Amino acid sequence: MKRNSRIRETSSDRITGIIIYAMLFIIGVVMLYPIWFVIIASISDPIAVNSGDVVFLPIGFQLEGYSNILRNEWILIGYRNSLIYAFFGTLFSLTLTFPAGYVLSRKDVFGHKLITLYLLITMFFNGGLIPTFLVVRDLNLLDRPFTLIILGAVSVFNIILCRVYIQSSIPGELQEAARIDGCSDFGILFKIILPLSAPILAVLALFYGMARWNDFFTALIYISTRQYNPLQIFLREILIQNAQFDVRRDIADLAAAAERARLAQVMRYGLVVVSSLPMLILYPFVQRYFVKGVMIGALKG
């Protein structure tokens, strides 16, 4: 007689399962609703949005906000610049971060603890904005597009994250066996460590990519040529220009002022969608690596 291996659920188990799924559903709704509201608000009548009528479905479907955004040539230039800065900046950051994390994970490297301590100090103390600006100016890096790629290229937190992943997930015996077989240090890095580090590379790429894509302060300080500005600078300009109120002009033409205010409201949510779209597209491709990423440093049974 075949033995039934299925464990029978009790009523308390079923109730606990229902409560857990209900809580997960509520948390999911709370987290996803803001994104959904921004999307439906960007295609709804701004009057309905301001009055609170837009809750779950769009009202007064319109694409005027998106058409005004896409007609702005500076938006397209900024989009192109931000994609370039995010892609090459992330690639440059990974090129520096991953080898540094690998070196610090090697216990046979002389002074690796002292180097780690030195890097940790920079996480809490820095030179400040004015000294950094003076250094950038003296290096002739002001108003150059590659400045946005070089500045902030390395995060000490990400280096430590990479080091901990290599130490906890890749056995040291594997590296010793490769060295016995005649593999050099560079061979170990590129043939063993790198192929086994896809999860941490994906997590670091998302961290760096989001930081590069959302960064506008660096361009605001160090870039003065309009052609080099990223998308976030132009989005900021559009919101500020549409929100300004000129007393003399707007009192004389209240209809134009009301139309400009309506257009600003229409474009506000559209700008959020446009600026967030690349990261929303990228995240599903790397989210499966987050399980391993968040478990870095956890105890293993």
The first-level CATH class name of the largest domain: Mainly Alpha
- Overall number of domains: 2
Q: How many angstroms separate the termini?
A: 36 Å
Stretches with pLDDT under 50, minimum 5 residues: 297-301
Seen as an oligomer or otherwise, the chain set is: single chain
List the helices and strands and how they pair.
Blueprint: H1 11-42, H2 46-50, H3 64-71, H4 73-105, H5 112-124, H6 129-138, H7 147-150, H8 156-169, H9 172-180, H10 185-193, H11 198-214, H12 217-222, H13 231-243, H14 247-252, H15 254-286, H16 290-294
Helix pairs in contact: 1-15, 3-15, 4-8, 4-11, 4-13, 9-10, 11-15, 13-15
Q: Would you mind describing this structure in some detail?
A:
The chain has 301 residues and is mainly alpha-helical. It has two domains: 11-50; 64-294, MetI-like (MetI-like fold, Orthogonal Bundle), CATH 1.10.3720.10. Helices cover 72% and strands 0% of the residues. It has 16 helices and no strands. Helix 4 crosses helix 8 (156-169) and helix 4 packs antiparallel against helix 11 (198-214). It is flat and about 80 Å long. The model is unreliable at 297-301 (pLDDT under 50).
Quick description:
The chain is mainly α and 301 residues long. It has helices at 11-42, 46-50, 64-71, 73-105, 112-124, 129-138, 147-150, 156-169, 172-180, 185-193, 198-214, 217-222, 231-243, 247-252, 254-286, 290-294.
